[in-house]
């Protein structure tokens, strides 16, 4: 409980200096269709024994703090797989995060493109 409170306060201090935090959603692109989401994972040639803490470590902190977060399409890598941008908003300011996300999506022009 104390660690969670400390994390909440740290995020609050970061958001006091700006409206949003922006970061990758995942550490790598999508896993192959038949991959086990609880098994091992390879990221940039390194093998890890667990998918969850290594593939999406940047989403879990905001589940703990309650800050609103959203993943937005932000481009595609050479092999045609999508990459995402995670935006995190101020505590209990979901509406502002959704407005900013809608503006980003409209400006990016990525919603009409599908993964290859």
Question: How would you characterize the overall build of this protein?
Answer:
- The chain is α+β, with helices and mostly antiparallel strands and 116 residues long.
- 34% of the residues lie in helices and 23% in strands.
- The protein has four helices and five strands, in the order H-E-E-E-H-H-E-E-H.
- Strands 1-5-4 form a three-stranded antiparallel β-sheet.
- A hairpin with a 5-residue loop joins strand 4 (69-76) and strand 5.
- The model has no long low-confidence stretch (mean pLDDT 89).
Strand order of the largest sheet: 1-5-4
Residue-averaged pLDDT: 89
Number of strands: 5
Helix vs. strand class: alpha+beta
Which sheet architecture does the biggest sheet show? Answer: 3 strands, antiparallel
Give keywords.
3-stranded antiparallel sheet, 34% helix, 116 residues, 4 helices
Quick overview of this protein structure:
The chain is 34% helix and 23% strand.
